[in-house]
Predict the structure.
Amino acid sequence: MKSITGMDYEELKSEIVETLGWERYRADQIASWVYDKHVLDFSEMTNLSKEQRKKLSESYTLDRLEMLGKQVSKIDGTTKYLWKLQDGNTIESVLIFYPNRVTACISTQVGCPVGCRFCATGLSGFVRNLSTGEIVSQIIHMEKDSKLKIGNIVYMGMGEPFLNYKNVIKSMKILNHPKMLGVGIRHITVSTVGIPEKIISFAKDGMKARLAISLHASYNHKRDFLVPINVRYPIEEVIQAAKEYQKITGSRVSIEYIMIRGINDFDSDAEKLVQVLRGLRVFVNLIPVNPVVGDFQRPSKKRIEAFKRILEKNGLEVEIRKEKGTDIDAACGQLRIRSRNIERALK
Ligand code: SAH
Ligand code: SF4
């Protein structure tokens, strides 16, 4: 069955007009039920005729997700959802609250094939890509559950977005379209481990969403260890692609750098990072590692500050990422693993 939530606006229109032979405005009515009212059951779309509702139920799906778990942080309200997909696989999404906006963090794959050493998702293996509808559906379900309008979206949940490029790009168009979720394109950020040809496609496809690159190391031998895909796409190639992206789009790029004690937190790592980033307009996010997998520890506050100062002294803009939802396992991938452990224990 075709998925309605997996169709961009033009496809939905053409499905309604060409395939079903209905009036054009029916497409807007359906979009309004799904994206404004979060109604994910055709039988409840009461401004359509009974026959139309029946026809829709027989021929289309709406990528409904079942909420298996929901954890709310007592510290800052950060809310983490565990969803069951229609094939039984599970994924996570997170809502993060800031004083004047709500940000959603969404997943793009079940698991992740990249296998970064510090990442719970990566170490849980890879199952499959999410469909466009499954990506979009996370936002609909979180708006429905929280009764809030989501204003910012980050593709930083489970999975590597650029290994599911087509579905991710299409999902962005749906999230952005004024008749669908209507989230401003500059309020959407995609985070990638850095697949050079996809970074360039992203620019050439005219996607105006923001780009974040997970670098995590400035020396190739360290990045090979932390982010195994670096063996195939070394730092220079990732940065070169980011420069081309910047030439085409004119946009600044965020650089994500997880800080791990004794591994990538030395002065020499910071100095090398300055060198690596030369010629690229960036904003650097330093993220103290969440010690969920592996034997990794965070550097001391003093060490992180010293690292930051070296970058700033060299003209880089840097922020130490504030932690959210530490009491509910902030880094993505953990809720799913924990629930699987619980499931296993119950068997
Ligand atoms: N695959 C993409 C996007 C999702 S990764 C990428 O790697 O960029 C999810 C995010 O969580 C990334 O920003 C990653 O850097 C971060 N992350 C994963 N494990 C972490 C950990 N143990 N501590 C802190 N951040 C972590
Ligand atoms: Fe995949 Fe990103 Fe986790 Fe690396 S950090 S394993 S790319 S989800």
